[in-house]
Amino acid sequence: MVLQLLYIIRVDFCGITQRLTYYVESAGLFAFGVAWLTASRMLPFITTEDERIKIELAGK
């Protein structure tokens, strides 16, 4: 109902929806990244030293 009223008085939603979409997608991607790092046990403040996954180069 509010959207219909704003449409009647001709409020432009183009810029508002694009910014809202950008910020919501950014927050979602950030949350996904934190969840990925948490699940892979890469964050040092969540895991202890012996739980962390060590990444080594093949040649060394």
Order of helices and strands: HH
Note the total helix count. Answer: 2
Task: Report the strand count.
Answer: 0
Average pLDDT number: 78
Backbone CA Rg: 22 Å
What percent strand?
under 5%
Q: Quick one: overall form?
A: rod-shaped
First-residue to last-residue Cα separation: 65 Å
Summarize it.
The chain is mostly helical and 60 residues long. Helix content is 55%, strand content 0%.
Structure, described:
With 60 residues, the chain is mainly α. 55% of the residues lie in helices and 0% in strands. The protein has two helices and no strands. The longest helix has 26 residues, at 14-39. The N and C termini lie far apart (65 Å).
SSE blueprint and pairings:
Elements lengths: L1 H7 L5 H26 L21
Which labels suit this protein?
single chain, mainly alpha, 0% strand, rod-shaped
